[in-house]
Protein backbone atom coordinates (compact mmCIF):
# COMPACT_ATOMS: atom_id res chain seq x y z
CA UNK A 1 0.00 0.00 0.00
CA UNK A 2 1.43 3.36 -1.07
CA UNK A 3 2.02 5.82 1.77
CA UNK A 4 0.62 9.29 1.21
CA UNK A 5 3.18 12.09 1.09
CA UNK A 6 3.09 14.60 3.91
CA UNK A 7 2.33 18.15 2.76
CA UNK A 8 3.29 21.26 4.67
CA UNK A 9 0.94 24.22 4.23
CA UNK A 10 1.39 27.82 5.15
CA UNK A 11 -0.36 28.75 8.38
CA UNK A 12 -3.92 29.94 8.07
CA UNK A 13 -4.18 33.75 8.02
CA UNK A 14 -5.59 35.15 11.21
CA UNK A 15 -7.92 38.10 11.52
CA UNK A 16 -6.32 41.29 12.71
CA UNK A 17 -7.49 43.31 15.65
CA UNK A 18 -10.78 45.05 14.95
CA UNK A 19 -10.54 48.80 14.67
CA UNK A 20 -13.28 51.07 15.92
CA UNK A 21 -15.37 52.62 13.14
CA UNK A 22 -17.90 55.41 13.01
CA UNK A 23 -19.63 57.12 10.13
CA UNK A 24 -17.53 60.20 9.30
CA UNK A 25 -18.60 63.63 10.47
CA UNK A 26 -18.30 66.48 7.97
CA UNK A 27 -16.96 69.99 8.51
CA UNK A 28 -19.74 72.48 7.86
CA UNK A 29 -19.36 75.99 6.47
CA UNK A 30 -20.86 78.60 4.16
CA UNK A 31 -19.38 80.26 1.06
CA UNK A 32 -19.67 83.99 0.48
CA UNK A 33 -22.50 83.44 -2.01
CA UNK A 34 -24.59 81.69 0.65
CA UNK A 35 -23.92 78.12 -0.51
CA UNK A 36 -23.81 75.71 2.44
CA UNK A 37 -20.79 73.42 2.29
CA UNK A 38 -20.10 70.07 3.93
CA UNK A 39 -16.57 68.75 3.42
CA UNK A 40 -15.30 65.39 4.56
CA UNK A 41 -11.64 64.38 4.28
CA UNK A 42 -11.31 60.65 3.57
CA UNK A 43 -7.64 59.65 3.31
CA UNK A 44 -7.00 57.23 0.47
CA UNK A 45 -10.18 58.06 -1.44
CA UNK A 46 -8.63 59.30 -4.67
CA UNK A 47 -12.02 59.55 -6.42
CA UNK A 48 -13.78 62.57 -4.99
CA UNK A 49 -17.58 62.66 -4.76
CA UNK A 50 -19.55 65.89 -4.88
CA UNK A 51 -23.28 66.14 -4.23
CA UNK A 52 -25.23 69.37 -4.79
CA UNK A 53 -28.72 69.59 -3.28
CA UNK A 54 -31.05 72.18 -4.80
CA UNK A 55 -34.22 73.34 -3.04
CA UNK A 56 -36.46 72.65 -6.04
CA UNK A 57 -38.95 70.07 -4.70
CA UNK A 58 -41.53 68.35 -6.87
CA UNK A 59 -44.38 70.11 -5.11
CA UNK A 60 -42.94 73.40 -6.44
CA UNK A 61 -43.56 72.34 -10.04
CA UNK A 62 -46.13 74.56 -11.80
CA UNK A 63 -49.63 73.15 -12.18
CA UNK A 64 -49.87 70.92 -15.21
CA UNK A 65 -46.10 70.64 -15.65
CA UNK A 66 -45.29 67.60 -13.53
CA UNK A 67 -41.87 66.36 -14.59
CA UNK A 68 -40.31 69.75 -15.21
CA UNK A 69 -37.89 69.26 -12.29
CA UNK A 70 -36.67 66.04 -13.93
CA UNK A 71 -36.20 67.73 -17.30
CA UNK A 72 -34.32 70.60 -15.64
CA UNK A 73 -32.10 68.17 -13.72
CA UNK A 74 -31.20 66.34 -16.92
CA UNK A 75 -30.65 69.59 -18.81
CA UNK A 76 -27.90 70.77 -16.44
CA UNK A 77 -25.41 68.60 -18.35
CA UNK A 78 -26.65 69.67 -21.79
CA UNK A 79 -24.50 72.74 -22.29
CA UNK A 80 -23.62 76.04 -20.60
CA UNK A 81 -22.72 79.57 -21.64
CA UNK A 82 -19.20 78.27 -22.35
CA UNK A 83 -19.80 74.83 -23.89
CA UNK A 84 -22.35 73.20 -26.16
CA UNK A 85 -23.90 69.93 -24.99
CA UNK A 86 -21.33 67.91 -26.96
CA UNK A 87 -18.43 70.01 -25.72
CA UNK A 88 -19.60 69.77 -22.11
CA UNK A 89 -19.79 65.97 -22.34
CA UNK A 90 -16.33 65.86 -23.92
CA UNK A 91 -14.83 68.05 -21.19
CA UNK A 92 -16.31 65.78 -18.49
CA UNK A 93 -14.85 62.77 -20.27
CA UNK A 94 -11.41 64.36 -20.41
CA UNK A 95 -11.58 64.74 -16.64
CA UNK A 96 -12.56 61.10 -16.19
CA UNK A 97 -15.65 62.46 -14.44
CA UNK A 98 -19.29 61.42 -14.31
CA UNK A 99 -22.15 63.83 -13.66
CA UNK A 100 -25.59 62.44 -12.80
CA UNK A 101 -28.75 64.20 -11.68
CA UNK A 102 -32.27 63.42 -10.60
CA UNK A 103 -35.35 65.06 -9.11
CA UNK A 104 -37.38 63.75 -6.20
CA UNK A 105 -39.84 65.07 -3.65
CA UNK A 106 -37.20 66.88 -1.51
CA UNK A 107 -35.49 68.57 -4.45
CA UNK A 108 -32.96 68.15 -7.26
CA UNK A 109 -29.60 66.41 -6.79
CA UNK A 110 -26.46 66.61 -8.94
CA UNK A 111 -23.79 63.96 -8.31
CA UNK A 112 -20.21 64.35 -9.55
CA UNK A 113 -17.41 61.79 -9.25
CA UNK A 114 -13.89 62.63 -10.43
CA UNK A 115 -10.27 61.70 -9.70
CA UNK A 116 -8.86 64.18 -7.20
CA UNK A 117 -6.19 65.21 -9.71
CA UNK A 118 -8.96 66.48 -12.04
CA UNK A 119 -11.12 68.02 -9.33
CA UNK A 120 -10.42 71.69 -10.26
CA UNK A 121 -11.54 71.22 -13.86
CA UNK A 122 -14.58 69.13 -12.95
CA UNK A 123 -15.72 71.55 -10.23
CA UNK A 124 -15.46 74.34 -12.79
CA UNK A 125 -17.74 72.43 -15.15
CA UNK A 126 -20.20 71.72 -12.35
CA UNK A 127 -20.20 75.39 -11.37
CA UNK A 128 -20.84 76.42 -14.98
CA UNK A 129 -23.78 74.00 -15.18
CA UNK A 130 -25.32 75.50 -12.05
CA UNK A 131 -24.42 79.11 -12.80
CA UNK A 132 -25.33 79.36 -16.49
CA UNK A 133 -27.07 76.31 -17.94
CA UNK A 134 -27.89 76.76 -21.63
CA UNK A 135 -31.35 75.14 -21.59
CA UNK A 136 -31.24 75.26 -25.41
CA UNK A 137 -34.57 74.70 -27.13
CA UNK A 138 -33.25 71.75 -29.12
CA UNK A 139 -31.77 70.02 -26.07
CA UNK A 140 -34.89 70.47 -23.92
CA UNK A 141 -37.05 69.20 -26.78
CA UNK A 142 -34.83 66.11 -27.04
CA UNK A 143 -35.02 65.49 -23.29
CA UNK A 144 -38.81 65.80 -23.42
CA UNK A 145 -38.98 63.29 -26.28
CA UNK A 146 -36.72 60.92 -24.36
CA UNK A 147 -38.91 61.19 -21.29
CA UNK A 148 -42.06 60.56 -23.32
CA UNK A 149 -40.40 57.44 -24.76
CA UNK A 150 -39.67 56.19 -21.23
CA UNK A 151 -43.23 56.39 -19.97
CA UNK A 152 -44.69 53.41 -21.93
CA UNK A 153 -41.79 51.24 -20.78
CA UNK A 154 -42.42 52.22 -17.16
CA UNK A 155 -46.12 51.50 -17.53
CA UNK A 156 -45.30 48.06 -18.91
CA UNK A 157 -43.05 47.30 -15.93
CA UNK A 158 -45.21 45.61 -13.24
CA UNK A 159 -43.14 46.95 -10.33
CA UNK A 160 -43.25 50.53 -11.61
CA UNK A 161 -46.95 50.22 -12.37
CA UNK A 162 -47.63 48.97 -8.84
CA UNK A 163 -45.68 51.88 -7.31
CA UNK A 164 -47.64 54.37 -9.39
CA UNK A 165 -50.95 52.87 -8.27
CA UNK A 166 -49.96 52.76 -4.61
CA UNK A 167 -49.04 56.46 -4.58
CA UNK A 168 -52.31 57.29 -6.29
CA UNK A 169 -54.24 55.32 -3.68
CA UNK A 170 -52.42 56.54 -0.57
CA UNK A 171 -52.33 60.28 -1.21
CA UNK A 172 -55.10 62.73 -2.17
CA UNK A 173 -55.24 63.80 -5.81
CA UNK A 174 -54.28 67.33 -4.80
CA UNK A 175 -50.96 66.10 -3.38
CA UNK A 176 -47.91 65.98 -5.64
CA UNK A 177 -47.03 62.69 -3.96
CA UNK A 178 -50.03 61.03 -5.57
CA UNK A 179 -48.63 61.54 -9.06
CA UNK A 180 -45.57 60.07 -10.86
CA UNK A 181 -42.32 61.75 -9.84
CA UNK A 182 -41.17 62.27 -13.43
CA UNK A 183 -44.53 63.37 -14.78
CA UNK A 184 -47.09 61.85 -17.12
CA UNK A 185 -47.37 61.95 -20.89
CA UNK A 186 -49.95 64.71 -20.59
CA UNK A 187 -47.77 66.97 -18.42
CA UNK A 188 -44.33 66.25 -19.91
CA UNK A 189 -45.36 67.06 -23.46
CA UNK A 190 -46.25 70.61 -22.33
CA UNK A 191 -42.71 71.32 -21.08
CA UNK A 192 -40.47 73.61 -23.16
CA UNK A 193 -37.20 75.47 -22.66
CA UNK A 194 -38.92 78.66 -21.50
CA UNK A 195 -40.75 76.78 -18.75
CA UNK A 196 -37.53 75.07 -17.65
CA UNK A 197 -35.73 78.42 -17.52
CA UNK A 198 -38.57 79.94 -15.46
CA UNK A 199 -38.48 77.02 -13.01
CA UNK A 200 -34.70 77.38 -12.71
CA UNK A 201 -34.88 81.15 -12.15
CA UNK A 202 -37.50 80.75 -9.44
CA UNK A 203 -35.97 77.92 -7.42
CA UNK A 204 -32.24 77.46 -8.11
CA UNK A 205 -29.81 79.68 -6.19
CA UNK A 206 -26.74 79.14 -3.99
CA UNK A 207 -28.37 80.58 -0.88
CA UNK A 208 -30.80 77.66 -0.69
CA UNK A 209 -28.40 74.98 -1.96
CA UNK A 210 -25.88 72.70 -0.25
CA UNK A 211 -22.73 71.10 -1.63
CA UNK A 212 -21.16 67.97 -0.10
CA UNK A 213 -17.54 67.14 -0.99
CA UNK A 214 -15.98 63.84 0.13
CA UNK A 215 -12.58 62.36 -0.71
CA UNK A 216 -8.85 62.59 -0.06
CA UNK A 217 -8.30 66.36 0.16
CA UNK A 218 -4.73 66.15 1.47
CA UNK A 219 -3.09 68.33 -1.18
CA UNK A 220 -6.18 70.26 -2.25
CA UNK A 221 -6.57 73.95 -1.40
CA UNK A 222 -10.32 73.50 -1.28
CA UNK A 223 -11.13 77.03 -0.13
CA UNK A 224 -9.33 78.60 -3.08
CA UNK A 225 -10.75 76.03 -5.47
CA UNK A 226 -14.30 76.63 -4.29
CA UNK A 227 -13.88 80.39 -4.54
CA UNK A 228 -13.01 80.00 -8.23
CA UNK A 229 -15.77 77.51 -9.01
CA UNK A 230 -18.93 77.05 -6.95
CA UNK A 231 -18.23 80.36 -5.22
CA UNK A 232 -18.68 82.18 -8.55
CA UNK A 233 -22.31 81.09 -8.71
CA UNK A 234 -24.56 83.99 -7.69
CA UNK A 235 -28.26 84.44 -7.04
CA UNK A 236 -30.86 85.98 -4.76
CA UNK A 237 -31.20 85.17 -1.07
CA UNK A 238 -34.83 84.01 -1.19
CA UNK A 239 -35.91 81.59 1.53
CA UNK A 240 -36.74 77.93 0.78
CA UNK A 241 -40.38 77.06 0.18
CA UNK A 242 -42.43 75.98 3.20
CA UNK A 243 -43.06 72.24 3.32
CA UNK A 244 -46.81 71.47 3.26
CA UNK A 245 -48.22 68.76 5.53
CA UNK A 246 -48.84 65.30 4.12
CA UNK A 247 -52.04 63.32 4.55
CA UNK A 248 -52.63 59.72 3.52
CA UNK A 249 -55.42 57.15 3.56
CA UNK A 250 -54.20 53.70 4.60
CA UNK A 251 -57.62 52.10 5.01
CA UNK A 252 -57.11 48.40 4.32
CA UNK A 253 -58.06 47.62 0.70
CA UNK A 254 -56.89 45.81 -2.42
CA UNK A 255 -56.45 47.25 -5.91
CA UNK A 256 -55.91 44.83 -8.79
CA UNK A 257 -54.34 46.36 -11.90
CA UNK A 258 -55.60 43.96 -14.54
CA UNK A 259 -53.00 42.40 -16.81
CA UNK A 260 -54.85 39.62 -18.68
CA UNK A 261 -52.67 36.59 -19.25
CA UNK A 262 -49.96 37.60 -16.78
CA UNK A 263 -48.10 34.56 -15.45
CA UNK A 264 -46.99 36.42 -12.31
CA UNK A 265 -48.62 38.84 -9.91
CA UNK A 266 -46.60 41.82 -8.71
CA UNK A 267 -47.29 42.61 -5.05
CA UNK A 268 -46.83 46.00 -3.41
CA UNK A 269 -48.32 46.37 0.05
CA UNK A 270 -47.81 49.64 1.86
CA UNK A 271 -48.78 52.58 4.00
CA UNK A 272 -47.08 55.70 5.33
CA UNK A 273 -45.34 55.84 8.68
CA UNK A 274 -42.66 57.47 10.79
CA UNK A 275 -39.60 58.98 9.12
CA UNK A 276 -36.07 59.37 10.51
CA UNK A 277 -37.04 62.19 12.88
CA UNK A 278 -39.23 59.86 14.92
CA UNK A 279 -37.48 58.12 17.80
CA UNK A 280 -39.07 54.82 16.71
CA UNK A 281 -37.05 54.83 13.46
CA UNK A 282 -34.09 52.68 14.66
CA UNK A 283 -36.45 50.02 16.04
CA UNK A 284 -38.57 50.26 12.90
CA UNK A 285 -35.50 49.70 10.71
CA UNK A 286 -34.47 46.70 12.79
CA UNK A 287 -37.93 45.14 12.93
CA UNK A 288 -38.56 45.68 9.23
CA UNK A 289 -35.24 44.06 8.41
CA UNK A 290 -36.16 40.99 10.47
CA UNK A 291 -39.50 40.83 8.67
CA UNK A 292 -38.24 41.12 5.11
CA UNK A 293 -34.81 42.67 4.78
CA UNK A 294 -32.76 39.72 3.62
CA UNK A 295 -32.81 36.09 2.45
CA UNK A 296 -33.09 34.89 6.06
CA UNK A 297 -36.08 37.09 6.91
CA UNK A 298 -39.43 35.68 7.93
CA UNK A 299 -41.21 36.54 4.70
CA UNK A 300 -38.54 34.91 2.57
CA UNK A 301 -38.38 31.83 4.75
CA UNK A 302 -42.09 31.19 4.32
CA UNK A 303 -42.89 32.45 0.82
CA UNK A 304 -39.64 31.53 -0.92
CA UNK A 305 -37.98 28.65 0.93
CA UNK A 306 -40.96 26.77 2.38
CA UNK A 307 -43.66 27.43 -0.22
CA UNK A 308 -41.72 28.29 -3.39
CA UNK A 309 -44.18 31.02 -4.35
CA UNK A 310 -41.55 33.61 -5.22
CA UNK A 311 -37.91 34.36 -5.84
CA UNK A 312 -37.98 36.82 -2.96
CA UNK A 313 -40.10 39.24 -0.95
CA UNK A 314 -38.74 42.37 0.70
CA UNK A 315 -39.99 44.72 3.40
CA UNK A 316 -38.52 48.21 3.57
CA UNK A 317 -38.96 51.79 4.75
CA UNK A 318 -38.20 54.68 2.40
CA UNK A 319 -38.30 58.33 3.48
CA UNK A 320 -40.46 60.36 1.11
CA UNK A 321 -40.02 63.83 2.50
CA UNK A 322 -39.12 65.60 5.74
CA UNK A 323 -39.68 69.13 7.00
CA UNK A 324 -37.48 71.54 8.98
CA UNK A 325 -39.80 71.21 11.99
CA UNK A 326 -38.94 67.53 12.33
CA UNK A 327 -42.07 66.13 10.73
CA UNK A 328 -42.11 63.88 7.71
CA UNK A 329 -43.35 60.66 6.18
CA UNK A 330 -41.84 57.43 4.99
CA UNK A 331 -43.26 54.73 2.77
CA UNK A 332 -43.40 51.38 4.59
CA UNK A 333 -43.86 48.59 2.09
CA UNK A 334 -43.61 44.90 1.23
CA UNK A 335 -42.85 44.03 -2.38
CA UNK A 336 -42.29 40.96 -4.51
CA UNK A 337 -43.88 38.80 -7.19
CA UNK A 338 -45.56 35.40 -7.10
CA UNK A 339 -46.85 33.01 -9.74
CA UNK A 340 -50.43 33.75 -10.73
CA UNK A 341 -52.17 30.55 -9.49
CA UNK A 342 -50.67 30.97 -6.02
CA UNK A 343 -51.47 34.67 -5.56
CA UNK A 344 -54.25 33.96 -3.06
CA UNK A 345 -52.29 31.43 -0.99
CA UNK A 346 -49.19 33.65 -1.02
CA UNK A 347 -51.14 36.64 0.30
CA UNK A 348 -52.83 34.44 2.88
CA UNK A 349 -49.46 33.21 4.14
CA UNK A 350 -48.05 36.73 4.10
CA UNK A 351 -50.85 37.91 6.37
CA UNK A 352 -50.25 34.89 8.61
CA UNK A 353 -46.61 35.95 8.97
CA UNK A 354 -47.74 39.43 10.04
CA UNK A 355 -50.28 38.05 12.53
CA UNK A 356 -47.74 35.62 13.97
CA UNK A 357 -45.28 38.48 14.39
CA UNK A 358 -47.87 40.41 16.39
CA UNK A 359 -48.78 37.37 18.50
CA UNK A 360 -45.37 35.84 19.17
CA UNK A 361 -42.83 38.55 18.42
CA UNK A 362 -39.32 38.35 17.03
CA UNK A 363 -36.66 36.09 18.51
CA UNK A 364 -33.41 37.30 20.01
CA UNK A 365 -31.57 35.37 17.28
CA UNK A 366 -33.43 37.28 14.56
CA UNK A 367 -32.63 40.56 16.26
CA UNK A 368 -28.94 39.67 16.63
CA UNK A 369 -28.59 38.70 12.95
CA UNK A 370 -30.25 41.94 11.88
CA UNK A 371 -27.91 44.05 14.03
CA UNK A 372 -24.92 42.17 12.68
CA UNK A 373 -26.03 42.71 9.08
CA UNK A 374 -27.01 46.36 9.49
CA UNK A 375 -24.26 47.57 11.82
CA UNK A 376 -21.47 45.09 11.26
CA UNK A 377 -21.22 45.65 7.52
CA UNK A 378 -21.52 49.45 7.69
CA UNK A 379 -17.76 50.04 7.17
CA UNK A 380 -17.98 48.09 3.89
CA UNK A 381 -21.09 49.97 2.80
CA UNK A 382 -19.28 53.27 3.14
CA UNK A 383 -15.94 52.34 1.61
CA UNK A 384 -16.37 54.77 -1.28
CA UNK A 385 -16.53 58.54 -1.14
CA UNK A 386 -19.73 58.44 -3.21
CA UNK A 387 -21.54 56.35 -0.58
CA UNK A 388 -20.54 58.77 2.19
CA UNK A 389 -21.45 61.84 0.13
CA UNK A 390 -24.85 60.41 -0.83
CA UNK A 391 -25.72 59.67 2.80
CA UNK A 392 -24.62 63.14 3.93
CA UNK A 393 -26.77 64.61 1.17
CA UNK A 394 -29.73 62.53 2.37
CA UNK A 395 -29.23 63.99 5.84
CA UNK A 396 -29.31 67.50 4.40
CA UNK A 397 -32.49 66.83 2.41
CA UNK A 398 -34.17 65.35 5.47
CA UNK A 399 -33.10 68.14 7.86
CA UNK A 400 -31.08 65.78 10.04
CA UNK A 401 -28.01 66.57 12.13
CA UNK A 402 -24.57 65.94 10.63
CA UNK A 403 -23.93 63.14 13.13
CA UNK A 404 -27.26 61.41 12.50
CA UNK A 405 -25.91 58.36 10.66
CA UNK A 406 -23.20 57.72 13.24
CA UNK A 407 -25.77 57.97 16.04
CA UNK A 408 -28.17 55.69 14.17
CA UNK A 409 -25.74 52.78 14.25
CA UNK A 410 -25.33 53.21 17.99
CA UNK A 411 -29.10 53.22 18.38
CA UNK A 412 -29.53 50.12 16.22
CA UNK A 413 -27.00 48.22 18.30
CA UNK A 414 -28.79 49.23 21.50
CA UNK A 415 -32.30 48.34 20.29
CA UNK A 416 -33.80 45.27 21.96
CA UNK A 417 -35.96 42.51 20.55
CA UNK A 418 -39.15 43.74 22.20
CA UNK A 419 -38.70 47.25 20.79
CA UNK A 420 -38.01 45.92 17.30
CA UNK A 421 -41.08 43.69 17.44
CA UNK A 422 -43.37 46.51 18.53
CA UNK A 423 -42.06 48.81 15.80
CA UNK A 424 -42.51 46.19 13.08
CA UNK A 425 -46.04 45.36 14.23
CA UNK A 426 -46.98 49.05 14.30
CA UNK A 427 -45.38 49.58 10.88
CA UNK A 428 -47.42 46.80 9.23
CA UNK A 429 -50.81 46.50 10.98
CA UNK A 430 -52.81 43.80 9.20
CA UNK A 431 -55.94 45.96 8.91
CA UNK A 432 -54.24 49.17 7.69
CA UNK A 433 -52.41 48.07 4.56
CA UNK A 434 -53.12 49.12 0.98
CA UNK A 435 -52.42 46.17 -1.32
CA UNK A 436 -51.71 46.67 -5.02
CA UNK A 437 -51.64 43.59 -7.28
CA UNK A 438 -50.60 43.85 -10.91
CA UNK A 439 -51.77 40.64 -12.56
CA UNK A 440 -54.53 38.68 -14.25
CA UNK A 441 -57.72 39.79 -12.50
CA UNK A 442 -59.74 36.91 -13.97
CA UNK A 443 -57.57 34.44 -12.06
CA UNK A 444 -56.76 36.29 -8.85
CA UNK A 445 -59.80 38.45 -8.00
CA UNK A 446 -61.97 35.78 -6.36
CA UNK A 447 -59.17 34.10 -4.33
CA UNK A 448 -58.11 37.50 -3.03
CA UNK A 449 -61.68 38.48 -2.09
CA UNK A 450 -61.97 35.29 -0.04
CA UNK A 451 -59.05 36.40 2.15
CA UNK A 452 -61.03 39.29 3.64
CA UNK A 453 -58.06 41.68 3.74
CA UNK A 454 -60.07 44.61 2.38
CA UNK A 455 -62.43 45.72 -0.37
CA UNK A 456 -61.17 44.61 -3.78
CA UNK A 457 -61.25 46.96 -6.76
CA UNK A 458 -60.12 46.09 -10.28
CA UNK A 459 -58.67 48.80 -12.54
CA UNK A 460 -57.60 48.49 -16.14
CA UNK A 461 -53.90 48.65 -16.98
CA UNK A 462 -53.02 51.43 -19.42
Could you estimate the helical fraction of the residues in percent? Answer: 40-55%
- Integer tally of domains: 2
Order of helices and strands: EEEHHEEHHHHHEHEEHHEEHHHHHHEHE
CATH class of the largest domain: Alpha Beta
Q: Distance between the terminal alpha carbons, to the nearest Å? A: 76 Å
Give the uncertain stretches in residue-range form: none
Biggest sheet architecture: 6 strands, mixed
Neighbour order of strands in the largest sheet:
1-2-6-3-5-4
Global shape: globular
Number of helices: 17
Computed over alpha carbons, the radius of gyration is: 25 Å
Number of strands: 12
Domain Peptidase M16 C-terminal: 190-374
Domain Peptidase M16 N-terminal: 42-171
Protein name: M16 family metallopeptidase
GO molecular function: metal ion binding
Amino acid sequence: MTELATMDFHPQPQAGEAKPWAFPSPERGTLDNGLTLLRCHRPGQQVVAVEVILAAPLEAEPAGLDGIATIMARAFSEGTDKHSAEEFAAELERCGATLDSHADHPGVRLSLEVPVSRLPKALGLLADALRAPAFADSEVERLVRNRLDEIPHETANPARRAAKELSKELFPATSRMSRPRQGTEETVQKIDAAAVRAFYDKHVRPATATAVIVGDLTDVDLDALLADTLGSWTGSSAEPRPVPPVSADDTGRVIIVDRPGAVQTQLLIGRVGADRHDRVWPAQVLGTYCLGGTLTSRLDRVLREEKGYTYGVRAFGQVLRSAPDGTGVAMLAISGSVDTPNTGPALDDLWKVLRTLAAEGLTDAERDIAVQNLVGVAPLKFETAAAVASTLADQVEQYLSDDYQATLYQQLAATGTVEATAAAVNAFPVDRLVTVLVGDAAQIEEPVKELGIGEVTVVRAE
